[in-house]
Amino acid sequence: MDAPSRVSSGRVAVTEYLEIDLGTETWHCRRCQRALGPARSNYKQGCLVHARDPSTFYPPQVEGERYSFAPDPALCMLVEFYCPGCGTLVETEALPPGHPPTHDIELDLDNLRRHAAGGGTREL
Amino acid sequence: MAVDRATLLAWIKPSPPSAEEMAAAARLAPGDCEIYGEKLNAILDEAADVFVRTGVSSMLHSGDLVVGIYDPAGNMVAASCGVYLHAVTAQLPVKFVCSQFQTEPTVGIHEGDIFYCNDALYGGIHNPDQIAIMPIFHEGQLIAWSCAAVHQPETDAVEPGGMPGSAKSRHWEGMKLSPIKIGERYELRADLLEMMENFMSRAPRMQVVDVRARVTAADRIRRRIQDLAKAVGAPLLAGLFRKLITQSEASARARIATWPDGTFRAVSFADTVGATESLVRAALTARKAGDHITLDFTGTSPENDGPQNAFAHIAAAHVAIYLYAYAFHDLPVSAGTFAPLDFVVPDGCLLNAGSEAAVSQSVYACWQMLTLTPIVFSKMMYASAERNLVSASAGNNHTVPFVYAGMNQWGGKVSDLLGYPFNGEGLGARSDMDGVDCYGFPMAHTGLGPEVEDVETETFFLHLFQNELIDSGGPGKYRGGTGVESALLLYHMPRAVVSSMGATTRVLIGQGLFGGYPPPAVPGIQVVGSDALEKLSAGEALPRDFRELAEKRTLKGQYRFERTARSSRMIGKGDLVSVIASGGAGYGDVLERDPNLVARDAREQRVSPRAAAEIYCVVLDSGSGEADLEETTKRRAEARQARLARGKPWAEFMAEWSKRKPPEDMLSCYGSWPDAKPVRPVVRL
Q1: Nearest C-alpha of chain B: how many angstroms from A23?
Q2: Which tens digits make up the pLDDT trace of B443-459?
Q3: Cα nearest neighbour of A44 on chain B
Q4: Does residue B329 sit at the A interface (CB-CB below 8 Å)?
């Protein structure tokens, strides 16, 4: 396991595909560096969003049956959040149609800044 | 009188140490904690081994159990798991006995006593989970408690199998024992064993043998601790116990403090509430500040009149399954780990139902915890040194605990669960590797599936096939582990009763992580009156997996595709029933998965050619099966462009999305839409 280290770039990796610029307090894509909006807001609002019918992803194995191996799109959709710069799939959520996407990460930026300055976060 | 639920929740955390305990801990010599802490673990491993070898029911044989050592006040010192949630909840009946019976002259706590219980209102999970508890004395002084717990697959409920889907209140669920003394002077009382045998008339021998197994395991711990006390003295043990608790608390707090402060949220949905089909939501908000975390389940659907309810301590205990296996996997399994955590579980939500509620399927009410907890902790830990512990969810509840009951071919009455289906789930993918294929039971990390040959000897079933289930691992940069599919034929007996439990069939209960996908849903499958036995006798070809069976109908018979949660029904010789363990959820963008790994998965039939092409966008050479890297790069670039073309800006998406809603008839147990607040009273007779 890598040891925690000081973040010299001023950016902290928060997920596999997202980082926060502590100077500008902005979400960025880690693949293409595209800005995705204010870091005090939900990064999903800076993404392109698409609701995928899960039965196209996991197709039915039997026709005409209520229970068919396929999720039911009336009850469940795969909501996908893409980086508008490079098309990376930043996050997915399995949600009933119409259910609000989750504001899943809400960081205390002042704490994160102190955390990064003290070497408490990993390098990007 | 049962304990109020707030007290039960509070008892999960360690009680403050006494001055004597702190003084004893301070007197420990360097190395004492390490040497004698390992001695405790060795005692527990021995007791777990004894436990597995002395019982008869399937979950016991699979190792889905716990044995633990608790201090005189009932705080968990060390446990061998098994099932971490039982390690946590075993504290509660011990604390009940200490608080209610220590000075009660008609009961008391004496050397040689054996206590026993299984009621969730006194700290259990659901009444199949029975626990034996023994006080440990040294020179007349209470120095510790030992516990041994495992699921008993029969409770004398309204249906066989202990987890009746039809239960409407606690009165449908069979035997519920508050902590009672079933033995004195190291001897079990014959009258109370007779009482249990009488309750469990569907499988009396299994009940009595497994009670004795629990007591034997608890007693083995008792004997070893007494030997240790003789060797090193009770004060050293008192100091050791407290130091293990304070050390694990200090270590947990130090680790939590290295994670960024913030609020982390996740939701998960199921579509089954006992016998009813309805969406329900589980919601978790984790607020992390400094070395402390509050886990808040506000937003979870209201309690219901089926069996998929829980109490607050049950919900909290399910968090232990994740914590002890991932975030705090290297810390002592003691009560101290829970000290930095607080829980908010609103009264009236399905995770904290009224005391008359049926809770026999509480584990299904809480199964979504196996999704929610890894998600919120992974998002907390990614920016820390614990990134290698970041993981998508396992336990996606397409796994079907399969109950069978009846007279077996040896002339015995049985009511049991098959041990291997849920001991064969795929694990969630991690930030650095695929999830483990056919990993095990995500509630019992050291559980093992029994041998098929043993199952066929002991039960009336023949396995038509048992395979890794293709495409069952959630896709991602790192793939979720694959699950298992089993086809069971009733073979040795003319008839038997079967049922199964589950929380979803048409909804994806799991959540992928950082762009990974949840694993697929699976139905229940039954072929009534199949000709499989005739084909076997004639040496004819038989189906090799459920896809083939479903698509080609290669067996004669009446096909039923149904919910994974199947009510009790009689099946006949030659009937075929499915048992399927789910895969784990995926991690990261599928388009970043190494094409060579996709080719390998296709070659090994873990991923279908369709999924390789359509989900992973990998071009496989039609001859060699190897990945064509150049064509794959082109196809993936096209796939990214297609995402950019179909994705909509947030405001545009939400304007359309927020007008949608699931069908009203699927919201009967959900609560108000979409915030899941109670909208109707629950009436229980």
Answers
A1: 17
A2: 888 888 888 888 888 88
A3: B650
A4: no
Lowest mean pLDDT among A15-29, B37-51, B186-200, B496-510: B496-510
Among B347, B327, B345, smallest CA distance to B337 is for B327
> Has residue A119 got a pLDDT over 80?
no
Overall average pLDDT of the B241-249 stretch: 97
Interface of B with A in 607-626 (CB under 8 A): 610, 615
Residue of chain A whose Cα is closest to the Cα of B545: A61
Number of domains in chain A: 1
CB-CB under 8 Å, B666 with A74: yes
Residue A122 lies in a domain: no
Q: What is the pLDDT of residue A51?
A: 98
Whether ipTM tops 0.90, in short, is: yes
What is the rounded CA–CA span in Å between residue B592 and residue A89?
10
Domain ranges of chain B: 38-235, 391-588, 590-646
Look up the domain containing A90 and give its range.
6-98+106-117
Interface check for B348 against chain A (CB to CB < 8 A): the answer is no
CB contact under 8 A, B506 and A76: yes
- Residue by residue, DSSP assigns B189-227 as -HHHHHHHHHHTTTSHHHHHHHHHHHHHHHHHHHHHHHH
Q: Where are the alpha helices (DSSP H) in B55-121?
A: 58-62, 84-89, 91-101
Q: What is the dihedral of CA B624, B627, B631, B633, to 10 degrees?
A: -170
Q: Which residue of B has its CA nearest to A112?
A: B260
Query: What whole-number distance in Å separates Cα of residue B574 and Cα of residue B305?
Result: 36
The answer to whether the CB atoms of A50 and B646 lie below 8 A apart is: yes
- Which of B376, B382, B580 has the most A C-beta neighbours within 10 Å, making it the best mutation to test the interface with A? B382
Residue B79 has pLDDT above 80, yes or no: yes
B674-683 pLDDT per residue, tens:
999 999 899 8
CA distance B5 to A106: 31
- With an 8 Å Cβ cutoff, is A94 touching chain B? yes
Type of residue found at B72: P
Write the pLDDT tens digit of every residue in B483-497.
Answer: 999 999 999 999 999
Tell me how far CA of residue B47 lies from CA of B63, B66, B80, in angstroms: 12, 9, 9
B477/A15 touch (CB, cutoff 8 Å), yes or no: no
Identify which of B512, B518, B523 has the shortest CB distance to residue A68.
B523
Does A35 reside within a domain?
yes
Determine, yes or no, domain membership for A71.
yes
Q: Phi and psi of B591, rounded to 5°?
A: -75, -5
Q: In the structure encoding, which two tokens stand for residue B17, read together?
A: 């140490």
Whether the CB of B261 is below 8 Å from some CB of chain A: the reply is yes
- Give φ, ψ of B587 to 5 degrees: -125, 125
Contact A87 B271 (CB under 8 A): no
Flag whether pLDDT at A7 surpasses 90. no
* Mean pLDDT, residues B101-116: 97
Closest residue of B to A111, CA-based?
B261
A64 touches chain B (CB under 8 A): no
Q: Is residue A124 part of a domain?
A: no
Contact B383 A14 (CB under 8 A): yes
What is the CB-side half-sphere exposure of residue B142 using CA atoms within 13 A?
Answer: 18
Cβ contact (<8 Å) for A89 and B271? no
Q: Quick one: average pLDDT of B269-275?
A: 90
Contact call for residues B512 and B627 (beta carbons, < 8 A): no
Token pair, residue B288, equals 């992390």
Q: Which residues of B touch A72 (CB under 8 A)?
A: 506-507
